[in-house]
Amino acid sequence: MDYEFTYDDHGHPSLSLDMGQETTANWLNSEIGTDIVKLQQLLDIIDELKTGTREKYEVKNRRFQLVLNRDEADISELHNGINEQTTEDGLDYAEEGLTIYEDESISGCGLDDLEDLLLAWQDFIA
Asked: Count of H helices and E strands in the chain?
């Protein structure tokens, strides 16, 4: 996984990833950011997955869902409930023959790749 660490216009650390990994970058920038405690907790969870003391980890908040298992990491951007295929005004996408474009809303990678990225991010923000 190729990545670039920079600083945004406000001087905050920022991650950029290759096309297809935008959701991972958005998640890390907004959900982890410079929170060392959250970052360390996630690294500890990855260690538990790799050593077999945990089989799966899943967390869902308003904007993202993170699912980790012993082999891979999947991150989905939830779009305020649009993933349920129904809009606020009751329009059912499936009933109307429509689908939601999700290619830029879902990222996946190996658990080792995510761990390497998080360790590099930890070094960058330290």
From this structure: 3, 6
